[in-house]
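== Sequence entry ==
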Amino acid sequence: MNTTDTTNDLSTTPKDLVDPVTLEIVRSSMVMTAEQINARIIRSAMNVVVKEMQDCSAAVFDGQGRLLAESASVPIHLGAIGLTLRTVIDHYLPLSEWNEGDVVLINDPFAGEGSLSTHHTNDVIVYAPIFWETELVAITALTVHHVDLGSMWMACRGWGVEIEQEGIRFPPVKIVKKGVLDEQLVSIMVNNSRLKASLDNDLRAQIYSVTLGKPDIARMFERYGSQTMKACFDELIDYSERRTRQEIERFKDGVYTHEEYVLEDGAMGGPYKLAIKITVSGDEVECDFSGTDPQIRGPINATLSATYAATFYVMRCVTDPTIPNTEGSRRPIRVIAPAGSMVNAQWPAAVQQRMVVCHSIVDLIMGALEKCAPERVMGDSIGCSYNEIIATDLMTGTRVHFGEVSPGGLGGTAVRDGASALSCHVTNCPLPPIEVNEIENPVLYTQREFLADSGGAGKQRGGTGIVLSYKVLTDHPQLSFTSQKSKIPPQGVAGGQPGKSGAWFVNAGKPEEFKLEYSMGDLIPIKKGDIVTQYTNGGGGYGNPSDRDIAAIVGDIREGLVTVEGAERDYGVKIDRSMLA
């Protein structure tokens, strides 16, 4: 007999069933379930984007569809999985129609009555209901970025102008019904991909990974019983809400505004404006994006779910990191985003490159919050930066895709220098080793190193960018590139200086050298043997550079992050080279 099961004990209230130790055990168990789901797909995937860049994220929900836990993965995924689940439940499949052994799949950004769904077609989400006895008690979820689902150009590269160019879209559909995989649906998805083998493997691995969360959750229900577990779920959500509200109460009440620009170099019709008005009132925050430009004929528009995800991310950054990521931590946050704008795109807008807007949303909100909580914000970061080669040989049918998130500098904070050479903020993907990229892709690296003096000067220095250079080894290559802040560099805060803007070259230093004069656009034909070089952005500094400790500047020079000349120019400090010995 399970002595801890109080399901039939009518004298015990749900609140009495939750003690701090039990609550922490349940919380940790849900987090571990999400982490293990994510670890399974990473270990099983064929594509580098998943197995090395870890472009995947998992979450656990209760039987009502409320968020309980997340893997420590990609924030732009995590903030939207629950919103997409709600769209599925409210518009397509009520929970009463979910059965034991089902798996629901969706990848349509415009499912439902707006854009509260997946961010783009490549992000496929699957959900698996978990039953205890006959009751739906939890739902596990897993998002995976699949490289190609039949878009106009492989991996949705290029300057698309409508969603139909971005590949096959599925509204919510049961890809597994009562334990039986729909092989016809799998074959339709695989048949529309240029990378059939990896999609077939990774899609099946995704489905099996999400369903393998059931034993972990079942053990917890067996240990504590249904009533105690559901009481823990309620308290965990309420606890996150209470602590988030306590954090927001520390902000100064008021109305704070800020603006940021995307494609500020004028490329493809820019610049385009993002605007926000943040109202802090007691223990609640309202983020109003009214004043943002309308959606454009281009792929950088953000779905409403992506805007929510970026907003949730920033609020987690500026509140206590020990608060559990649950439904409750999002309740005090309200988002207003006009339909048809760049932050709430409507069909048939293209949205594949929505990260250009989403990264700017992070800087946008940070810029507004600097006015009421300067000790909690950070300088601007590298933003969205992609570097990809695609190639198709029409005679042999060979398809090649090499892609990576280009790392750069993050902004400095009140207590730390900005991190260097990372994919920042809502991306949060690891940088694959050079050896892996060279084994898996037709490229040969010639350089990958820190870009000295690229981090913005400040009491806390901005993180540094990198120099990335590789030789293209495939026939019929086309270059797709994305970068931000080429004209308006990553800004500093609290007196910190901007980071340095980056640049792109093909065959740098050779007679045939040419510089890419804009931040993104359509595919660029290049040749086999060409060398692509990218200088990535540094992060903005925090605080007055004159307040930086001399020892920190000397350390930066020793580590190759700052030059002696840069120290004198940016910090007004002459470093005797004997100090570097």
